[in-house]
Amino acid sequence: DCSGLSSDQINYEVKNLLINDGKNIILKNTDKKRNLLKGFKGNIKLEIIGNVDSYFADELDGPKVIVNGDVGDYSLCNMLNGKITVFGSCGNDFAGDVKSGEFYIFENCGFNSFSNLSENCKVVIGGSPGNIFACGNKGGIIIILNLKGGKMFVDDNSRWLERVKNESVFLRGDCKVLTDKFSLEKAKDKDEDIYLPLISEFARLFKCSLSEIKSK
After folding, report:
1. Positive or negative CA dihedral for 109, 142, 200, 79?
2. Is the CB of residue 161 less than 8 Å from the CB of residue 167?
3. Cβ contacts of 8 within 8 Å, gap of 6 or more
4. In angstroms, rounded to a whole number, what is the distance separating the alpha carbons of residues 120 and 141?
5. How far is residue 79 from each of residues 61, 96, 103, 190, measured CA to CA in Å?
6. What's the whole-number mean pLDDT along residues 180-204?
7. Whole-prediction pTM value?
8. Whole-angstrom distance, CA of residue 108 vs CA of residue 87
9. Do 126 and 98 form a contact (C-beta atoms < 8 A)?
10. pLDDT tens digits for 38-89?
11. Helix (H) or strand (E) holding 178
12. Measured between alpha carbons, how far is 36 from 57 in angstroms, rounded to an integer?
């Protein structure tokens, strides 16, 4: 229980648990706590009950992280490896400069998210991203599910995929491209080999209907 503890105290207590072979650590009442869990390493599971503030879990290397709420700005940047599951939305400047990892976001992510990703990154967003999205990426797989529906619009103001070459994003549902920087193509049968494992894992994590996701 993180009530009444500073971020430094929380990080210290978690490190003590890890030293004593803790493998499954749950933190609650972390709202408004900044700079939690920076640089944590190893085959461990870190779960947040509720929301977590900005600068969360930067420079991770290996852990599985589950957040049962929203994540603040500037979080999960410079990650070396890990698996991230967020049951809410993510703030601005989220998950930049990631070397390797999987991200499953149930709702939305803010502007300038998922920039400078390596080819070893996999991202599934249940909602939609903000502007300045996925810029400077070296590769990887990005899937936008837009589960709440409604037509998505991509225009010059969106500033998606700047400073990248031959980059693609899988979009579910209705989308209107209002710029000559992109082309919109119907997914091919062979594309299912790429996106099906990831949306299947998304459906398992968030207890969604895979058949409903695949319907569009």
Report:
1. negative
2. yes
3. none
4. 8
5. 6, 8, 11, 30
6. 94
7. 0.96
8. 10
9. no
10. 999 999 999 999 999 999 999 999 999 999 999 999 999 999 999 999 999 9
11. strand 175-178
12. 6
DSSP conformational letter for 26? E
Secondary structure of residue 137 in the 3-state scheme? coil
Residue whose pair of structure tokens reads 């229980």 in the numeric block: 1
Q: How far is CA 156 from CA 96, 114, 148, 162, in A?
A: 21, 18, 24, 10
User: The tokens of 64 are what?
Assistant: 């599985």
Assess contact for 179 and 155: CB atoms under 8 A: yes
Tokens 């899937």 correspond to: 143
Beta bridge partners of 106: none
The Cα–Cα gap between 114 and 134 comes to 5
Asked whether the beta carbons of 97 and 81 are under 8 A apart, the reply is no
Number of Cβ within 10 Å of residue 189's Cβ equals 6
- Answer for the pair 79, 60: CB distance below 8 angstroms, yes or no: yes
- Amino acid sitting at position 111: F
